[in-house]
Amino acid sequence: MIRKLAEQVKEYKGASIATPLFMLLEVAMEMMIPLEMGNILDKGVQGGSMQAIFCFGGVMILMALIGLFAGFAGGKYGARASAGFARNLREALFRKIQTFSFSNIDHFSTASLVTRMTTDVTNLQNAYQMLLRMAVRAPASMIVAMIMAFYISARLASIYLVIVLILAVFLIVVISVVRRIFSRVFKEYDNLNESVQENITGIRVVKAYVRESIEKDIFSRTSEALRKMFVKAESIIATGIPAMSLAAYSSILLISWFGAHMIVSSELTTGELVSLLAYSMNILMSLMMLSFVFVMITMSAASAERVVAVLDEAPEIVNPSEPVMEVPNGEIIFDHVNFAYKKEAQNFVLSDVNLTIRSGETIGIMGATGSAKTSFVNLISRLYDISEGSLKVGGHDVRDYDLKVLRDAVSVVLQNNVLFTGTIAENLRWGNKQATEEELKQAARMACADEFIDRFPEGYETFIEQGGANVSGGQRQRLCIARALLKRPRVLILDDSTSAVDTATDARIRRAFREDIPDTTKIIISQRVSSVQDADRIIIMDEGRIDAFDTPENLLKSNDIYRDIYEAQTQGGSGDFDENGGEDS
Ligand SMILES: Nc1ncnc2c1ncn2[C@@H]1O[C@H](COP(=O)(O)OP(=O)(O)O)[C@@H](O)[C@H]1O
Ligand SMILES: [Mg+2]
Questions:
Q1: Which of 214, 224, 231, 296 is deepest in the core (most CB within 10 A)?
Q2: Largest Cα–Cα distance of the chain, in whole Å?
Q3: How many angstroms is it from 105 CA to the middle of ligand 1?
Q4: Count of alpha carbons within 13 Å of 504, Cβ hemisphere only?
Q5: Tens digits of per-residue pLDDT, 81-109?
Q6: Quick check: CB of 349 below 6 Å from ligand 1?
Q7: What SS3 state is found at 337?
Q8: CA 405 to ligand 2 centroid distance, Å
Q9: Other CB atoms closer than 10 Å to residue 177's CB: what's the count?
Q10: Among the residues of 313-455, which ranges form H helices?
Q11: Which residues have CB under 8 Å from 231's CB, separation 6+?
């Protein structure tokens, strides 16, 4: 785990090494100052020599200046190293997430990925900075101060030792309690982000269903849970400061008490006593810092695990070593294919799918919500990998293709598709970066998107807001189809992509497909019989199985499911698969 994180330090190695070195220099200066202070008192004040005061005082000021510079430089390099480390880590995470397949993303959930890239990385950044600055400095200063104290007076120094030990035990108890609280904090952060993310992305649905107050409750509950945990943790940590003061004052008291006796019996000078008091402060401060470092490391250990889990995740779908770089045609062969989303799942979502789709055919798919239509088509462009059997596109196994080649050739308009912030033209060019204006127009024409684009005052330069909020559902669907067409695919898959488009326009889009891209295999999932009845053949799906695969005419004669839906939809009635008109998502 440490190694995985250390890899991200990269170009900040120099700064990472310089920081503790500067901190050591600062410690060295800090340690010399009490000695000089003792000298001023003993040789200057007590000895009545102005010259000694100037001399030792000058040296002391010089040391203080060097210490100041070292502290400043250490702080600067520490900040540089930790901020750079955080940037590298974030970039590594982002790059990694880009390689994730759909199933990898299912594994973490989007909200959790967001927390890991933000809160967790920030934690690690703070911990790293603390580590660079304090991990060497605090123990070094503690040990040196201890040695110096023993050097001046072993008897008095042993007082520290006792107090430091008592304080250390106390801090260890505090840390172990706090550690347990913090490990729960991050799970709660995930919940918070999930609630925020779900609510904000679905804000329109939330409003439509007047769920605001319920959503607010969910959010406040998580928020409140976080507040409680932080208050608990921080108040426990806060007990450390009075404990430290107590220890400081008692050691001053004890040292002064015993020191006074020793001065009377000339075993100790006043200057030495002052130096000892200064060292006692140093020791206690270092102990305090050390405990802060421990708290930080505790907090960040949970974050480190969460970040490394993302970095360690193996992308489920990777490019083969010698990929096939061209999809020759749009033929699709499913050979005894079984599929489940999770390896450990008991039942297959799709079982024993066996069928051949010829290149250039138009295939309709119908079936109830949850009958695995989406799962079926997602296998073809390898958004998920099949569990058993074999799946060939254009004569090659889908796993033999270069991923980009395959996904360009198999163009899917996903069921819940989104547009991105940018102009219409920019969005369409996702399909093909080099597309000329003419090509954009042609694709828009085929998808019947030209009619409304031309009506926008700014045409193809119209700005699409995030998620396509400023176009209607049907307009968004048509833009998504145009975007998919720009890839000039061998296989075009529409997953319920014209559900918000009126039937007349829907028919015109299909006619354009027939006339303009006759060689492309077209797979159209729809809830509407009218969208698939002119297909060459129709797949009827039922609970993850192929119930029938035949021409519309034959299905009308032989398939009960198709006949029911056909009759319901052509003789009035909604004929929806779902009696209660369930939301498909
Ligand atoms: N990402 C996923 N992870 C786990 N299960 C899923 C996932 N997507 C869909 N499923 C499950 O697979 C089944 C088929 O879903 P889907 O293919 O979306 O059906 P359809 O498109 O016909 O409505 C459903 O039971 C659904 O719960
Ligand atoms: Mg679906």
A1: 296
A2: 120
A3: 15
A4: 0
A5: 999 999 999 999 999 999 999 889 888 88
A6: yes
A7: strand
A8: 24
A9: 13
A10: 373-380, 403-409, 424-428, 437-446, 450-453
A11: none
